[in-house]
């Protein structure tokens, strides 16, 4: 199939078969759903751009609906002339010509689609079925019915496009947070340019009320930002010097300066937009099943329609060709599978949109469906169930002064990005730069080692000291809270006590998981087992395991997967837990907005850092599945009944239109309900 859209990239399955450009993809494209990141740029001046876009949208809407309006008016006039006015001239060729002209505005585009399908060696499509049925109706003199079938089919297409536009509205809303320009520092003055033209390391300025155009590091003292467009949370977020600010945030406070840390194409916002745009390419099993079913079902009903014309000739005494041809045409119209192949992917598309509205990004409808089967939720502790915002509570030293101890430790910890290390570095900001560090090495699951001002320093958990055969006061093993133990020149020097807080919605989230079909909740942590069990007891988590290395977490998941009844979701930060995220049935990145590893590894990204969103994701998955099942049941039931009536001559083209277009519209209306649901 030739690709004429420069913004569309064909996709293929493992067997090399094209997986895009299906009927639903065509409709998504017509509705703008496949070009979320490739909006056309108009040539108006900036002041006239908005008005110009509004004019273009208004004209395109009129053009889109004009053919159906023309056909509808001519059909109604023709029916009035046939049944009420009854002029003498409205017969024969004139009557045929009138209805033929009424047919063409809506019929020609479908004929073109059918012809393109034939060129692509696809005969059994809804386009060819509609063309055959309506031309057949003209052939036996049923002109109004032929026009009506094609007209209502065209109206159905318009409704489908409108429904897709509505369903993708929450996703497309993300585009509104893409800034159009960036104010970048050049030759000691700020100039306006496109975000795509700004390089990493350059300084940009963001005024109050403006959107942040690129990911960057705060150079100013601090500022307040509205992150609702990214996370769905309306509460302003305060960000201070040295911390990360993400593209799409709205500056609420004062003029700030940022040092750009990523190109726009690599920014978290751009990657999330790309991820959501491509979510529809990953199909749920139900979608794939219905698509395969339609490919088998459509040719079967076509040949049944042919048989309905031919077989009665041999077994019916008063056989009348036009009578049985009419029944076959009715049969063809009813058999059109558009209610299934459109409403079902639309249901999943709507589910993805509803999830986006709630700050949850699904990488595909297959994960949306899989969320309904999850019965085991395994969670990391730090950053998932706890805030991951650590603060130094106490400093205990042995044989040295605290004023000497803490700067050495802070200098070492300043080289790590771990939340605990950041807390220690934050505690002692002054004089850290005066301490020379070298040979820094992070030992996974243990801590840090390196040289500070020539002294050999170890900082981490007690496993780290045991690993390097450093003796220490074993009484500290009984301390329940998180501590960082320190050895200087292979001699135990003391420890720092660190506190973390449980997230405010964590306890309610665990309760809601149990109420929504999760049979066991498990917490895994590299922290002390004592503190892990304490938090698990507070949150009513079923099982908890502490003192785990990253490879131990993998072992725990593999152990759970040995029971084939376990369908596992793992929730972690998406960086340290990447192997476990990949191993689980559904990997969920918690609080991972801005984390490249989370976006790459996880199947679902929760932007709001709230454990309760895990339950929201499950609820959205279940609501989507209910709607899909309802649509399947509706389509099959109505079509089966009307097919039987049509074969028996008890259903006309009008009933056939309801069985096809009417059911499709009902299914579409049902599918878009998810956009109005509260989760």
Could you explain how this protein is built, in words?
The chain has 23 helices and 22 strands. With 679 residues, the protein is α+β, with helices and mostly antiparallel strands. Helix 21 links the parallel strand 21 (586-590) and strand 22 (604-606). It is elongated. The model is unreliable at 1-19 and 21-51 (pLDDT under 50).
How much helix, percentage-wise, in residues?
A: 40-55%
Q: Estimate the global geometry from the Cα principal axes.
A: elongated
The strand order across the widest sheet is 10-22-21-20-11-18-19
Kindly report how far apart the N and C termini lie.
41 Å
- Give the strand content: 15-25%
Structural class: alpha+beta
Tally of strands? 22
Average of pLDDT: 79
Protein name: P-type Zn(2+) transporter
Subcellular location: Cell membrane; Membrane
Keywords: ATP-binding, Cell membrane, Membrane, Metal-binding, Nucleotide-binding, Translocase, Transmembrane, Transmembrane helix
Family: Belongs to the cation transport ATPase (P-type) (TC 3.A.3) family. Type IB subfamily.
């Amino acid at each position: 199939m030739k690709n004429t859209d420069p913004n569309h990239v064909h996709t293929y399955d493992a067997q090399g078969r094209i997986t895009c450009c299906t009927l639903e993809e065509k409709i998504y494209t017509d509705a703008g759903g496949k070009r979320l990141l490739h909006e056309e740029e108009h040539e108006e001046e900036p002041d006239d751009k908005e008005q110009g876009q509004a004019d273009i949208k208004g004209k395109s809407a009129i053009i889109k609906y004009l053919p159906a309006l023309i056909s509808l008016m001519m059909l109604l006039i023709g029916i009035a002339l046939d049944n009420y006015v009854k002029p003498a001239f409205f017969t024969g060729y004139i009557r045929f010509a009138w209805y033929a002209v009424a047919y063409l505005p809506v019929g020609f585009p479908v004929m073109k689609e059918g012809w393109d399908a034939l060129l692509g060696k696809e005969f059994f499509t809804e386009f060819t079925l509609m063309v055959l049925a309506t031309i057949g109706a003209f052939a036996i003199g049923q002109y109004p019915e032929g026009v009506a079938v094609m007209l209502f089919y065209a109206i159905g297409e318009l409704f489908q496009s409108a429904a897709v536009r509505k369903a993708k509205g929450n996703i497309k809303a993300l585009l509104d947070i893409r800034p159009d320009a960036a104010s970048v520092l050049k030759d000691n003055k700020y100039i306006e340019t496109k975000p795509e033209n700004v390089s990493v390391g350059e300084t940009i300025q963001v005024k109050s009320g403006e959107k942040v155009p690129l990911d960057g590091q705060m150079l100013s003292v601090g500022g307040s930002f509205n992150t609702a467009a990214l996370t769905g949370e309306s509460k302003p977020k305060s960000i201070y010097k040295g911390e990360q600010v993400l593209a799409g945030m709205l500056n609420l406070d004062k003029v700030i300066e940022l040092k750009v840390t990523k190109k726009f194409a690599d920014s978290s916002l751009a990657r999330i937009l790309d991820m959501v745009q491509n979510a529809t390419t990953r199909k749920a099993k139900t979608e794939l099943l219905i698509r395969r079913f339609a490919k088998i079902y459509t040719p079967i009903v076509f040949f049944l329609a042919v048989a309905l014309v031919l077989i009665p000739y041999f077994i019916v005494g008063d056989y009348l060709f036009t009578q049985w041809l009419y029944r076959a045409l009715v049969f063809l119209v009813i058999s059109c599978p558009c209610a299934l192949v459109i409403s079902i992917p639309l249901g999943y598309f709507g589910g993805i949109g509803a999830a986006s509205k709630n700050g949850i990004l699904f990488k595909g409808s297959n994960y949306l469906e899989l969320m309904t089967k999850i019965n085991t939720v395994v969670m990391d502790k730090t950053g998932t169930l706890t805030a991951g915002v650590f603060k130094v509570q106490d400093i205990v030293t042995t044989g040295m002064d605290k004023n000497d101890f803490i700067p050495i430790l802070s200098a070492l910890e300043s080289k790590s990005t771990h939340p605990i290390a950041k807390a220690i570095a934050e505690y002692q900001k002054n004089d850290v730069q005066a301490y020379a560090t070298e040979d820094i090495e992070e030992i996974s699951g243990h801590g840090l080692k390196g040289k500070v001002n020539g002294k050999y320093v170890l900082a981490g958990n007690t496993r780290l000291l045991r690993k390097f055969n450093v003796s220490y006061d074993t009484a500290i093993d009984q301390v329940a809270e998180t501590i960082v133990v320190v050895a200087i020149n292979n001699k135990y020097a003391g420890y720092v006590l660190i506190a973390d807080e449980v997230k405010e919605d964590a306890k309610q989230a665990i309760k809601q998981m149990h109420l929504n079909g999760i049979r066991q909740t498990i917490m895994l942590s590299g922290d002390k087992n004592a503190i892990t069990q304490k938090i698990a007891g507070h949150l009513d988590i079923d099982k908890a395991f502490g003192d785990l290395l990253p490879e131990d977490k993998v072992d725990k998941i593999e152990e759970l997967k040995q029971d084939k009844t376990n369908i596992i979701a793992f929730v972690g930060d998406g960086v340290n837990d990447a192997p476990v995220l990949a191993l689980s049935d559904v990997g969920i990145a918690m609080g991972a907005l801005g984390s490249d590893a989370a976006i790459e590894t996880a199947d679902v990204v929760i932007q709001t850092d709230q454990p309760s969103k895990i339950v929201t994701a499950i609820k959205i998955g279940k609501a989507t599945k209910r709607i899909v099942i309802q649509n399947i049941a509706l389509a099959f039931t109505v079509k089966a009944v009307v097919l039987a009536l049509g074969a028996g001559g008890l259903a006309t083209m009008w009933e056939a239109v309801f069985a096809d277009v009417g059911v499709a519209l009902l299914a579409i209306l049902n599918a878009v309900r998810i956009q109005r649901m509260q989760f």
